[in-house]
Write a structure and sequence with these properties.
By secondary structure, this protein is mainly α. About 70% of the residues lie in helices and about 0% in strands. It has 5 helices and no strands.
């Protein structure tokens, strides 16, 4: 499923990623957030994930959202205009999923 993401949501993801990166780097200003995230991950995420793993996962997601392939523009245009998914759009989608695979994102 493809979903058009408003720019403000992507910016919010970037902000979260920047805080996660600061935590991984050991920034003492993020200790409270790290403790909260570690508690949440231990209790709510199965299997449990570390802050480092969550950061790596979010980096992959943001990388995919930021893909600047011509294929992304072709698919985004088709989705935004609710156009029929012809062979060109399907091929563009295949190019995007190949980029996701190369980035390590399961789809």
């Amino acid at each position: 499923m493809l979903y058009a993401l408003p720019a403000w949501k992507l910016e919010a993801l970037w902000d979260v990623l920047l805080v996660l990166r600061r935590m991984v780097a050991g920034d003492p200003d993020t200790d409270v957030v790290r403790e909260l995230l570690e508690l949440l991950c231990a209790d709510l995420v199965t299997p449990a994930r570390t802050v480092e793993q969550i950061t790596a996962d979010l980096e992959k997601v943001v990388a995919v959202l930021m893909l600047e392939l011509p294929a992304v523009k072709a698919v985004a245009t088709a989705v935004a205009l609710d156009e029929e998914r012809d062979e060109a759009v399907i091929d563009a989608y295949r190019q995007i999923t190949a980029a996701w695979t190369a980035a390590g994102v399961r789809h």
